[in-house]
Amino acid sequence: MRLWTSIAIGFAVALGMGAAQAPPSDPPQPNPALPLPNAPWQPHVRLVYESDTRAYYRPCGCNANSAGGLARRAALLKDLRAQSAPVVVCTAGDFYGTADIFNEAKSRFVARMMDQLGYDAIGVGEMDLNFGLATLVADVRSLGLPVVCANLRAKTDSLRIRGEGPAAAAADRLGSAFPPYRVVSTAGSRFGFVGLISPATKVKPAAQKDEPVEAITYSLDDPVAVAKSVIPELRAACDVLVVLAHMGEEEAVALVAAVPGIDLVVLGHDPAGRPLGQPRTAGGARILRATSQGQNIGELNVKLGDDHRLADAFNRIHIMDASHRDDPEMAKRVEGFDEENRKLQKELFARQQLQGDEQDPFGGRYLGVGACQSCHVEEFDVYAHTRHARAYATLASQFVHRDTNCVGCHVTGYGEAGGFQGVRVRGADVDLIDVQCEACHGPGADHARDGSYRDTAIASCVKCHTPNDDPDFDFATDWPKIAH
Ligand code: HEC
Ligand code: HEC
Ligand code: HEC
Ligand code: HEC
Question: 308 and which of 33, 178, 203, 239 could share a cystine (Cβ 3.0–4.6 Å)?
Fold first, then answer.
């Protein structure tokens, strides 16, 4: 099956793009490691693109010759970088996986490896928001990933990464969570990348699969309207303009028709994983797609004109099956992560068994303050300044943090399934020290929207503020001191 697909795409590319070219100026160099047909001319730049990796850091494993995996991707990039033309690497998003704790560790591993692989521009997909905008922002900030997205608007400044130069000014104007665009200079040409995500991609949050979280930490503005506002200024600052478009193919066609100045569109959001062997042309732009689960990697050979702009292009789709070798260094990193991950999975599985709650994808019923923070930014900001957020440190400063007479009221869920277990386990996926949100509201997996989650909290105070420990406690006067 794979082989036939490979040949079919190879022919489509050769006939479609190659036939109309001018006679080659330089004879192309054959490369035995890369069996697809070469462009009939020497490319000036190779634009490598993909999308929808969805935390598949290994081949999907669905059949003997299953495609994908970061080790093969690393080897392909090395092979391409060893050739004459410079390589620019981008993705149209969805590098994170499904919204459950099993996928969270994988997703964040993929983000770390994208940093190692030297991506030049990264768009955002709805899967990348699966663990909350705060998680994505934390990864992008700590790794310095070159994420661009013009129409993802953050509702709080603490969740914004402005970038530098004119892109930062545009980010301020749009209120975007990430710089709307960035420019990468190579081979004497400036490649401008702008990111857009369609609201139609149905953003699904971690905890509540059916309800959008836009209302809380971010919102998505109309991609066409935002494109009209940023593309003219980016066009003036670059030679080749690329949109990293996390949207359906027809939406992209409408976008290029409505907004002039786009040279290339790299599409994401393709659950069916159908690459476009031959770019689709619309409104003067070429629309590219290489998806998903890391099974296909696109390589657009770019020919530049004397004006440094896009003069011609020749597309190749690499099907990342077992005919590709592994890069040994990346393979080692993947092995290392697997080991780490196996331990984590075992722990999570054990916890599920303990609670007889195998249906619950969150494993523990307590999710930890980090999970709440990802959606409830404002409540968190208030909470973080209260003594509840330092209650464990109070004990630790007196060396009584392991004293079972003391920990109960200074931690979260003590004595309950999935709650604090008596001693702090460093490196555990959920750290339940301090009087966190769930100490008052109850386990996060119960998160109801009928008012009961709020009522539980109102009733909780006196579990700890007992007449013995806090004789003066009075809800009416004490709640306002910490109210959120
Ligand atoms: C799990 C136990 C626990 C619960 C439940 C709890 N508290 Fe507390 N609270 C504490 C502890 C422990 C401290 C002291 C923390 C420290 O200083 O280390 C504290 C401190 C406070 C303070 C002083 C905070 C400050 O920043 O000055 C107020 C006010 C307070 N609690 C109100 C409440 C109210 C109102 C509720 C219910 C809505 C509540 N607490 C529920 C354990 C709890
Ligand atoms: C039944 C719940 C409960 C237990 C058990 C408990 N505490 Fe507390 N602790 C509280 C509450 C509630 C407060 C906050 C009282 C207030 O704000 O007036 C508090 C506050 C404190 C403070 C801060 C006092 C201050 O005003 O700065 C210290 C220190 C402390 N506890 C130590 C301990 C130690 C040590 C133990 C074990 C011997 C212990 N706690 C056990 C509920 C508890
Ligand atoms: C000390 C106990 C306590 C802690 C800790 C706590 N809450 Fe609350 N929370 C409450 C109480 C009590 C209410 C209801 C207050 C009311 O409506 O009178 C509430 C209300 C809320 C509401 C509803 C607000 C509204 O007006 O609809 C949200 C959302 C919320 N909390 C989230 C959080 C998050 C997120 C955290 C952790 C970052 C947190 N809470 C920590 C006690 C707590
Ligand atoms: C995936 C996003 C998400 C996460 C994670 C999340 N919440 Fe919520 N929460 C919501 C939404 C949406 C609402 C509805 C309120 C609104 O529209 O503002 C809500 C409402 C609430 C309310 C008010 C409920 C009511 O019936 O009045 C409380 C309390 C609350 N959340 C606490 C928490 C706590 C505690 C955590 C962490 C264990 C948490 N939430 C995690 C999205 C989330």
Answer: 239
